[in-house]
Amino acid sequence: MQSDQVLTEALRARGQRVTLPRLAVHRFVSRAPQHVTADDIHEEFPSLSFATIYSTLDLFEQLGLVRRVSTLGGSAVYDSRVDAHDHATCRVCGRMFDLERDELPAPALPRGFKAERAQVEVVGVCADCRRSG
């Protein structure tokens, strides 16, 4: 499984062990829709403690395998898509949608400012919620 190989190489390059919980969480995150929570993972693997899940996700973020995104409520969502993109979040249902960078106008930065990282979050109401409301 290619996903396992990517994880194994990333862990070993950093001197970390390949464990069954790490493999299980990585497989889940890789196969799930892009935006997953620790609760989603715990539902799938109830034998894993939240401490194990969060420490695994934190390690994956450090390895560049997931991207942590804050939500409206302050909780974290983990995105398996780590390339440069932004998010739109529905304030009614909480669903998060990916936005491509070329879909948004470039921000006006102060003269001489060199951006190292940027993240835009657009908050509104998704089409499904607008139809049902």
Description:
By secondary structure, the chain is α+β, with helices and mostly antiparallel strands. The chain folds into 2 domains: 2-79, Winged helix-like DNA-binding domain superfamily/Winged helix DNA-binding domain (Arc Repressor Mutant, subunit A, Orthogonal Bundle); 86-132, Ferric-uptake regulator, C-terminal dimerisarion domain (Dna Ligase, domain 1). 38% of the residues lie in helices and 17% in strands. It is built from 5 helices and 6 strands; from the N terminus they run H-H-E-H-H-E-E-E-E-E-H. The chain has helices at 2-13, 20-31, 38-44, 50-63, 127-132; strands at residues 35-36, 67-70, 76-79, 86-90, 96-99, 121-124. Helix 2 packs across helix 4 and helix 3 (38-44) crosses helix 4.
**In angstroms, what is the radius of gyration?**
17 Å
In round numbers, the mean pLDDT is: 89
CATH class of the largest domain: Mainly Alpha
Helix-strand category: alpha+beta
In whole angstroms, the N-to-C terminal distance is 44 Å
- What count of helical segments does DSSP give? 5
Strand content: 15-25%
CATH superfamily of the largest domain: Winged helix-like DNA-binding domain superfamily/Winged helix DNA-binding domain
Whole-number count of domains:
2
CATH-derived architecture of the largest domain: Orthogonal Bundle
Determine the oligomeric state from the structure.
single chain
Order of H and E elements:
HHEHHEEEEEH
Counting DSSP E segments of at least 2 residues, the number of strands comes to 6
At CATH level 3, the topology of the largest domain is Arc Repressor Mutant, subunit A
| Share of residues in helices | 25-40%
User: How would you describe the shape?
Assistant: globular
- Poorly predicted runs: none
Summarize the biggest pleated sheet. Answer: 3 strands, antiparallel
